[in-house]
Amino acid sequence: MAARVRVGVIGCGNIGKTHAKAFANIAGADLAACCDGDAARAEALAEVHGVPHVFTDVGELLRSGTVDAVTVCTPHPTHADIVVAAAAAGVHVICEKPLAVDIAEANRMVAAAERGGIKFAGIFQRRFWPAAQRIRKAIDDGKLGRITHGECRVYIWRPESYFAADAWRGKWATEGGGALMNQAVHAIDLLQWYLGPVTEVFGRWAKLRDGDYIDVEDTAVATLVCANGALATIQASTNYNPQFGFHVQVHGTSGATASVWEMPEGVEGITDIWTVPGEASAVHDRARDGDPRPGFPEFHRLQLEDFVQAIQEGRDPAVTGAEGKKALEIILAIYESTRTGLPVRLPLA
After folding, report:
1. Does 258 share its domain with 149?
2. What is the CATH number of the domain that holds 337?
3. ω before 297 within 30° of 0 (cis)?
4. Distance in angstroms (rounded) separating the CA atoms of residues 46 and 34
5. What is the pTM of this model?
6. Confidence class of residue 281 from pLDDT cuts 50, 70 and 90?
7. 116: domain range?
8. Are 130 and 104 members of one domain?
């Protein structure tokens, strides 16, 4: 029987609570520690799940010998230093999206994990939706032919109260970006997962809402060129009320179109278009018939369970740190393209 994995949650805010709840329902994992700079917040989460160890210092946690792995749920710009420290301590680590807020930091994280011989994963739980995996399998099985075009639309709503809820939200210095970096990153990850390597990005971002309570982008558009010749578009905004949600669609030379749609935000995405030749449409209509769909933390649980099993089995997790870096690189290329007014080639220097 594989040894149980002792896990610590670093960052005990909203997403840390989601991770803790997920780990509490994973066979083979023991939630062993909570760590947050706010001692009361760490203690409150520990009390909910009966966690034996509470820390306010990441270094102290990593030196304590109480954990085999940690999950990083802190604001984006802090991710890199925590992952590098975990790798140096020989502690496996899974990190919330985005991995970092610049490519040099992301590369530093991946290199540190390789040096430390640890398992390093990035959170993209939407890849674990059955509808998302169905598209990936159809591509792998050649049912779409060569992918020729993809599109990603993220039309969601974030009111002023959302940004007021946490001081780090909506600021370049503490969030590293806005609609792209914090929300659309999930859909962009699915898009590039289906398309394959992206070689060129041309885009624009803007802050279009009134008020000075954010300084990051709330709206962005971009075009992508892929290594296989496919073209794709990204449209993202947090100004849409009512929301349309997240939608990722791909097309191939077989004449097939396949897409996944998340609406309302936070629940399982469904297959809304499926025209694979020779197959029934099998469009999932739970969004229309009112049946409940799982959301948080179910698909976090599936990805975190894969991470635990990767540690136990000595294999790579489903979404490695290097894989998790790809969506970040596309987003950073949109920022750079806006700055220069020019297309940006990938990989970034």
Report:
1. yes
2. 3.30.360.10
3. yes
4. 6
5. 0.95
6. low
7. 5-124+300-319
8. no
Q: Print burial letters for 69-78: b (CB count within 10 Å at least 16), e (below 16).
A: bbbbbbbbbb
Tokens found for residue 172: 């370049």
User: Given this model, what pLDDT does residue 68 score?
Assistant: 98
> 286 with 261: CB under 8 angstroms?
no
Segment 290-316 mean pLDDT: 88
Retrieve residue 36's tokens.
């947050």
How much is the mean pLDDT over the chain?
A: 95
Pairing type for strands 219-226 and 198-206 reads: antiparallel
Does residue 209 sit in the same domain as residue 288?
yes
- One domain, residues 112 and 162: no
Q: Are residues 196 and 111 in the same domain?
A: no
Angle (CA) 242-243-245 rounded to 5° is 165
Residue 284 pLDDT grade (very low, low, confident, very high; cuts 50, 70, 90): low
291 has a pLDDT exceeding 60 = no
| 324 backbone dihedrals φ, ψ, rounded to 5° | -65, -20
Q: Are residues 136 and 274 in the same domain?
A: yes
